[in-house]
Design goal:
Order of helices and strands: EHEHHEEHEEHEHHH
Structural class: alpha/beta
Radius of gyration: 18 Å
Number of domains: 1
Mean pLDDT: 95
Largest sheet: 7 strands, mixed
CATH topology: Maf protein
Helix content: 25-40%
CATH class: Alpha Beta
Low-confidence stretches: none
């Protein structure tokens, strides 16, 4: 972490959960939100995890390739992005609900079931020389299994009324009131929040030497 914090780091996400998680493990960073529309065609990817990983890469690439030094200052050494989706028992990819009815439908799909939370992460180092047109970086995904209790419609409606579901994949946040709905998880808790810290630390370790060399 000390080596990483000798570099300038940008988080290409406005997610308060990701900001909290990275801050809690000691990462010093600034935030520049990606403008990528997150409109990739799900049919082009082999499953929800691959879709989330591709979206994370596009977010990081967007910030990297559209960096405006006159507005944002010097190009950063590291850009980190992530994207989280929930996969229901039936294999449906659930992203952020647009309204109350969609949030209700998502929670009904998760009720009394075993779903999966997939977070794709991309790490890009803009200053490391490219190989051809390829940006130096890597992407990966992490999956956590989540088991929901059976939820009544009144419980779902009460939760939706809190407003908590609307900026969260699958329409819930495990760290909030929805925690009472969840029987258990298999995998990284922080992945369900939106950022798999162990996998991030594992993956970025091999990138630190070339990042420091060109910082």
């Amino acid at each position: 972490m000390a080596s990483l914090n000798n570099t300038s780091i940008v988080l290409a996400s406005g997610s308060p959960r990701r900001k909290e998680i990275l801050s809690n493990i000691g990462v010093v960073f600034s935030v520049v939100k990606s403008e990528f529309e997150e409109d990739l065609d799900k049919q082009n990817y082999d499953g929800a995890a691959a879709y989330a990983q591709a979206t994370a890469w596009m977010k990081a690439k967007d910030v990297c390739e559209n960096w405006d030094c006159s507005k944002l200052g010097p190009i950063p050494d590291v850009i980190i992005s992530a994207d989280t989706v929930v996969e229901s028992d039936s294999g449906e990819i659930l992203e952020k609900p647009a309204d109350k009815s969609e949030a209700t439908r998502m929670l009904q799909a998760l009720s009394n079931g075993k779903s999966k939370v997939h977070t794709g992460v991309a790490i890009v180092a803009p200053k490391v020389p490219r190989q051809g047109d390829a940006i130096y970086g890597k992407s990966f995904s992490e999956t956590t299994k989540v088991e929901f209790a059976e939820l009544s419609l009144s419980e779902i409606e009460a939760y939706v009324a809190t407003g908590e579901p609307f900026d969260k994949a699958g329409g819930y946040g495990i760290q909030g009131a929805a925690g009472v709905f969840i029987r258990g998880i298999v995998g990284d808790y922080f992945n369900v929040m939106g950022f798999p810290v162990h996998a991030f630390a594992r993956e970025i370790e091999s990138m630190i030497p070339p990042i420091l060399e060109h910082a």
